[in-house]
Amino acid sequence: MYRSVLVFRVTTKEVNGKDAQLLDRLVFSILTTLSRPRRSLVVNVRGPADVQAAFAFAEQTGVRVIIKNSGHDSLGRSSGPNTLAIRTTTLKNLTYIPEFVPEGCNHVAPRPAAAVGAGVIFQESYPFAEAHNISLPGGACPTVSPGGGYTLGGGHGMMVNNYGLGADRALQFKIVTPTGEFLTANECQNTDLWFALRGGGGGTFGVVLETVQLALPRNPVQMIQIQDFDNTDENTRAYMKIVLEHTKEWALQGWGGFVQLNEFQYINAIISPEEAIEAMKPLTDWAQTVDATIIQKTHDSYVTYWQEFLFPVDNPTGLPFAVASRLIPADNFETDEKREELLNATLEAAAGHDAWFGFATTPFKYGANKNTSATPAWRNALWHAIVEDFWNFDTTSGQQQQILQNLSSSIDAYRKITPGSGAYLNEADINEPNFSESFWGSNYDRLVSIKDKYDPNHLLDCWRPRNANQAGLMEKESWGTPLELLWENICHCDSDIVRLHCRAMCPDIQKEWNEISSLRSGAKTTSIDGFTLSMPALIAVARYCIPTAISEDAGVKERVEASADFVVRMSEPGAKGSMYGVNTGVGASDRTALQRVILKNLTSGILPIETAGNDNYLSSHHDSSLLLPESWSRGAMLLRLNTLLRGHSGCRWIVIERLHALLANNIIPSPPLRQSISASGDLAPLGYIASALTDEVVVPVWSGKGTDRKRTTSIEARKAHGIESIIYGPKEALAIVNGTGPSCAVGALALHDANILALTAQLTTAMAIEALNGSPETYDPFIHDIARPHPGQIEVAVNGRHLLKGSTFARMHDESDPAQKLRQDRYGLRTAPQWIGPHLEELTSARATIEIEMNSTTDNPIIDLENERNLGGGNFQGTSIALVMEKVRIGLQHLGKLVHAQFVELTSPHMNRGLPPDLAAWEPSLDFGVKTMDVATAAYLSELSFLGNTVTNHVQNAEQHNQAVNSLALISARYTFHAIQVLYMLYSNLIWALCQALDLRAMISIFFKRLESEIKASFVNIGLSESAHAALTKHIYDQARVRFGETSQMDSSTRFTELLRPLVTDVLDFLAKEGEGVSSTKFDALEWRTTLASQLGKIYREVRSQYYENGSAEGMMGNTVHLYRYVRKDLGVPIRKGGDIDTEGVDVQLSRIYRAFERGGIIEPVLKCFKQ
Ligand SMILES: Cc1cc2nc3c(=O)[nH]c(=O)nc-3n(C[C@H](O)[C@H](O)[C@H](O)COP(=O)(O)OP(=O)(O)OC[C@H]3O[C@@H](n4cnc5c(N)ncnc54)[C@H](O)[C@@H]3O)c2cc1C
C-alpha cells in the first residue's frame, strides 16, 4: 500500500533557534506527521550542517533517527517506522586524487585514491574509475553505495581476494557524529573511529559524508563462465567436487568469483590468459563432457567484465528478498572428507530455496588487517555462502516469517560444520544466533566502547531481534519486530532508486497477471473476509468467472452477527437513540418510506424490451448498450459481499450467504447501465442486486456460464438453483444498496486494462525507436536517475533500456554518419519517459485508492461495534473513484496522442528515416499503404480526446437537493471504459504499422549490405589504390543511404537513377582529388550511373521479394521481439506485401489485434517483453 513520504530540509538556521517561530512550526509538522502510523520524514543531506541539524533536532525532540542511503540493507537497519531519516543519496561527489595523503599523516607516502560521496553508487563509481584509468573495485549490484553501508559493513566483491575488502581499501572518512562533531577519521587521527568505520557496520557511529578509497591499477581481467549443463544429481555432484577440490588453489592464484549449483563465474586480474586457461582446465575438461557452455575471455578491466557479465541488466533492487549466510573457512575445503561434508551441507542448505551462492569473494589471499573491524572470520574464509528467497507482494507476514525462519534453519547446516566462524553482517540472517560473535567476533567489545564514546546518547541505536537478549551495537530498544522493519525497508523506501523499484508499476502488473492466471488455472483459490480482497481476485471473479469462497475464519462470522444483533437491538421498541434506516425512513422522505419499499423504488432505469417479430423498424441503438455489462455486475456483487463481511453494516449472515449463492451459481443481476449518480452509493444497480434475492421485485438476470448462459428472471434462476428468497430485516436492504461496489468494480477493471495499456505504450515506443532507427540515448540513466529523478520517468527509462537490449535497429547518434541527420529524436520518441512516466505514478496511486475502496465499508449508517454506536456518515460518496477515473482517462488520452505522434512519424516520408511513404510495401505510386489507417487513427484520437473531458464537473442537484453533491463515479468509470476501447483501436493500428515498419526496416538493412558491395564493385577496375577505393566506397555508400531516404517516394524503376544523380559529382570530385592515375577512359560517369542504377533496382526488387517470402525482423530486435512474434505468428498477421499479393483485408487483421486486447490475449506477450 502506498504510504506518503514527506521530504524536506532542516536547515541549521531553523534548528539553531534563530527563527524560533519557524522551528516551532517545523517541529509541530514533523511530530504531527511522525505521530501518524508508520510515517517517516527525510532530511536530504547536502553537507555537514544538515546532519548536525538533524541530530540536534533528534536530541531535542526524542525523535528516532536512522541513516538511509540506497536502502538496500537486508537487516532493515536503514529503515524504521516513525523515524527521521538522514538520507545521504544526495552526496554524489567523485574526485580522483592521484597523490593522496591522509589528512595529518605527513609521514605516509602518497597513493592514488578517489574521494567518494556517501550517495555515489557503483553504477556511477565504475564508469568514473574507467574514465580515470584506475580501478575502484566493489560489489555486484549497480545501486549499492560504496561510500555507505557497503564499505562500512565490510564490502565483498570479485576482486576482494587480491585487494582486500572494501573496508581494507578505505583510507579516510569524513563523518558527523551524533554529538554534532564533523570529524576526519584516518590512520593518524580519530583512529578508533577509523577502525570502527572499516567494517563495524553502517548507521552506528555517525553519518559518513565521504570516504577516500585506494585506487588500484586498471588491469585486464581473465574470466571464465561455465553454465547450461544438465542439472542432474550426478552432474551437480561431479561439478561441485571439482570446484571444492580447487577452491583454495584458485584463491591462491588470485581468482575470485561465484559458484552456483548450475553456474560458475570467476575472474582474475593478476594472471595471463594462458595461465588462466591452464588453471581452469580441470573444470573445463569436465564441462566439455557434459556439453556445458564455456566462455573464457580477457576483459580490458573489471568494469568491462562487470558490464558484460555480472550486471548486463538493470538491477531490480528493492525486490523483496531475504538472505542468510555463513563464512566458510579454508579448513572445510582441506580433505576429501571435509569436502564431502561441505558438499552435503551445501546441498542441504540450498534445498528448497530460490538461490544459493558460494561467493569466492573473501580476502583470503589478501590476508589479515588489524585496522579493520569486520569479523576476523573473513580472513580465513574461502566462501561467503548465502541462500536467498524471494517473496511476493501479497505474501502474508506469517509467510514471510516462515521464509526467514527456513533460511535461518538452512544455514544451520553450515553453522554445524564451521564452529567459530562468522557471517557477513550486510548479507546476514535476520535471526542470526549469537549475532555479536558472528558479525564482529573479537572486535565486538572494542566496537561497543567506541560506539559509547561517539554516540553517548544513543541517537543511532537500531532495532534488534526481540529475542536476542544482549546489549550492544544492534540493540537498546526494539522498535518493532524484525519483520515489520524488513517490510519497511522493502516497501517504505525513501531512496529514489529503491523507491522506484519498490513502487514500480511494471512488476506489480506482472505479479497481478500471474496471480490472475493462477486463479484462472485453479492453481490458487480465493476467499473474501472484508479486508484482504486483492485486485487480481476481483478481476478473476468479475471477468473470468472464477468462484470465490467466504472466509471460514470464525471471527468473520462473529463480527457480522454481532453487527446484525446490534441492528435488532436498535429496532426493538424502547431502543435507546435512533438509527437511520432502522427506526426512520430513508433519504428526504425519511418519515414515509419503509425498509421493504426501498427496493421497489430503486428499479426505475431503462431496460431493453424484447420485441416479437420484425416490425421493419431498424433501431439506431444496440439493446445491449442499455445494460450494465455482466462482468461489472459480478464485480459489484463481490465488492458488496466483501463490504458486508466487515461487520459494520448490520446484515444477517444468511443474507451474505444467499448473495454469495447467487454469485457462486452465476446468477448475475442485469441492471440498467445508467441511473446512478454514485452519491448515496450506486443505488440503482445495487437495488437490482439486492432485489434479486427477494420475491417482491422481479429483476432480469444472466444465469449460467459459458454457452449455457441465458437471460431470465431472478425468481426463475433462483428456483432452478434452489436458492430461497430473503425477506430483508431492518437496515439490510439499505446495507446492500448504499455503497460504491459498482463504480469501484468498474474502476478496478478499467484500471487493470489501463495498466496494460501503459505497458503497451512503453513497449510500442521502444518498437517505434527501433522502426525509426531512433536512439537509446532517450533512456540514458543520467537523464532520469540523476538529473530528474521522478519515479515514473525512471521506470519508463529502466524498461526502455531493457526493451532495446540487443536491438540492432536502435542506434546511438553517430556524428560521422551523414545518414543520421537528426542529432536527437523527435518528441514522440525522445520525451516518452517524461510523457508516460507521470501517468505511471498516477496509475500507481490510483491502484492504492482502489485497493482501499475495495476493502472499505461504504454504506450508511455504519456500526462501530466496539463502542456500541451507529454513525451516520457519507462513505458511499464515490468521489475517490470518480477522480481516479478522471485521471486515468486523461492518461489514456495522453497515451493516444503519443500513438498518433508515433504513427505519423512512421508513415510520413519526411520523418520516417527512409521508410516508404505510408509504409507502402509495393511501388509507392501503386500502393497507398496505411493511408486509411492513418485517417482512422486521427478519428480515434479525436474521439478519445473528447472522452478525455471530465465528467465530475457536470454534477446536478438530486433527490430534492438531499444529494446535492454527487460523485458521478460510475459515469466517469463508464467513460473510462469507452476511452480504453478507443485506445485499443489506436494501439491495434500502431502495432500493425510497427510490425510492418520493422519488416521494411529489416528488408532495407539487408538491401544496404548489397548496396555497399555493389558500390564497391562499381569502382573495382578504374585504377584506384586500395585505400582510395575504400574511401570512395565509404563516401558514396554513406551518401547513397542519405539519398535512399530522400527518394523514398519514388518507384524502384526510377528511384536509383535519381538516387545516384548527385553522387556522380561526388565521384568526379573524389577522383579529381584522390584519383591519381584514373583516366576518363577508365571511368565513364554516365555509364557508371546507368549500370549501377539498373543493378540496384534489380537487387532491391529481388531483396524485397525474398524478404516477403520468408523474411523476419526478429533477429534484429531487442526484447520487443515477443510482441512482434505474437502478431506475426500467433495472430497470423503477415507482412503486407502490397500490389495484388495480399489475400486478406487489413481490417480483418486489425480486428484480430483489437480482439487480443479486448480478450486479454495480448497481455502475456506484452509482459514477456518486460521480463528481466
Ligand atoms: C541486490 C543487492 C546486491 C548486493 N551486492 C553486494 C555485493 O556484491 N557485495 C557486498 O558487500 N554487499 C552487497 N550487498 C549488500 C550491501 O552491501 C548492503 O545492503 C549495504 O548495507 C548497502 O549499503 P547502502 O549504503 O547502499 O544501503 P543502506 O541500506 O541505505 O545502508 C545500509 C546501512 O549503512 C548505513 N549507512 C548508509 N549510508 C551511511 C552513511 N553515509 N553513514 C553512515 N551509515 C550509513 C545505514 O544506516 C544502514 O545501516 C547487496 C545488496 C543488494 C540488495
Bound molecules: flavin-adenine dinucleotide
Strand content: 5-15%
Poorly predicted ranges (pLDDT <50, ≥5 residues)?
1-25, 464-503, 586-593
- Overall pLDDT level: 88
Q: Say how many strands there are.
A: 25
Name the structural class.
alpha+beta
Tally of contiguous helical segments? 40
Question: How far is the first residue's CA from the last residue's CA?
Answer: 24 Å
Mind summarizing the main beta sheet? Answer: 7 strands, antiparallel
Domain FAD-binding PCMH-type: 35-218
Family: Belongs to the PAL/histidase family.
GO molecular function: ammonia-lyase activity; FAD binding; oxidoreductase activity
GO cellular component, one term: cytoplasm
Key features of this structure:
47% helix; binds flavin-adenine dinucleotide; alpha+beta; disordered N terminus; single chain; 7-stranded antiparallel beta sheet; 25 strands; 40 helices
Task: Please characterize this protein's 3D structure.
With 1172 residues, this protein is an alpha+beta fold. Helices cover 47% and strands 11% of the residues. It is built from 40 helices and 25 strands. A seven-stranded antiparallel sheet has the order 15-12-14-13-17-18-16. Strand 24 and strand 25 form a beta hairpin. Helix 8 packs antiparallel against helix 10, helix 8 (233-253) packs across helix 12 (336-350) and helix 27 (741-771) packs parallel to helix 34. It is globular and about 100 Å long. The two termini are 24 Å apart. The relative contact order is 0.06. The model is unreliable at 1-25, 464-503 and 586-593 (pLDDT under 50). The structure holds flavin-adenine dinucleotide (FAD). Residues 66-74, 77-78, 88, 118, 139-141, 144-145, 148-150, 152-153, 155-157, 202-203, 207-208, 315, 317, 426-427 line the site of flavin-adenine dinucleotide.
